[in-house]
From TrEMBL:
Segments crossing the lipid bilayer: 6-28
Origin organism lineage: Bacteria, Bacillati, Bacillota, Bacilli, Bacillales
4Fe-4S in keyword set: no
Keyword DNA damage in annotation: no
Residues of the DUF218 domain: 43-172
Alphabetized UniProt keyword annotations: Membrane, Transmembrane, Transmembrane helix
Any one GO BP annotation for this protein: Gram-negative-bacterium-type cell wall biogenesis
Top-level taxon in the UniProt lineage: Bacteria
Source organism (scientific name): Laceyella tengchongensis
Gene Ontology CC: one annotated term: plasma membrane
Protein name: Uncharacterized SAM-binding protein YcdF, DUF218 family
Length: 192
């Protein structure tokens, strides 16, 4: 009898915990396999990921390759590269710039935001660089699982962003989606 009560209590607790988590999972899955808007944007913000030995990590290369594609298709004119100093001596923004310039992007079409350490700061500092672009729609390039939270921070920073999501071929997506769910909880709890 006592075992049945524990089993029922455990099942109820599991359901109570799973419902909010499933809701969050649904939010971070909102942009799964979505394509960037076909409309033209003057500027696209590319959120940093990580550098490996001063080179973009495989995940960051995915974001940069989408930015490169949109640039070469003339769907964006300028790329704002957002990422501060990590491990290795150069900023993520500088590492992204080197990658894109080596692939034909004109350096004068790149804007570097090199102070940020997290997604919130990426959008906050990018917004400061975009003050003269107030009211203009900006494309936001990041992974699809990260887009929901990034768009929230863009709104907080006053940036009207259109999602340009990347679906990863190199990351274990369930892990990153679970991490995003926890980041959303942190964002709500701390009002970050």
């Amino acid at each position: 009898m006592l075992a049945n009560k524990w089993m029922i209590s455990g099942a109820i607790t599991l359901i109570v915990l799973l419902i909010p988590f499933c809701t969050l999972w649904n939010l971070v899955s909102r942009y799964d396999h979505s394509e960037p808007s076909a409309e033209h944007h003057r500027i696209a913000i590319v959120l940093g990921a990580a550098l490996w030995d001063q080179q973009p990590s495989p995940a960051l290369k995915e974001r940069l390759n989408l930015a490169l594609r949109l640039y070469k298709e003339k769907r964006v004119d300028y790329l704002l590269l957002s990422g501060g100093l990590g491990v290795g001596g150069i900023t993520e923004a500088e590492g992204m710039k080197r990658y894109l310039v080596a692939r034909g992007v004109h350096a004068d079409h790149l804007i570097l935001e090199d102070r940020s350490n997290n997604t919130k700061e990426n959008l906050k500092y990018a917004a400061e660089l975009l003050k003269q672009s107030k009211g203009e729609k900006i494309a936001l390039i990041t992974h699809d699982y990260h887009m929901y939270r990034a768009l929230n921070y863009a709104r907080q920073a006053g940036v009207r962003a259109t999602p340009a999501p990347v679906h990863s071929q190199v990351l274990f997506t369930p892990y990153h989606k679970a991490r995003e769910c926890l980041a959303l909880i942190k964002q709500k709890l701390l009002r970050m």
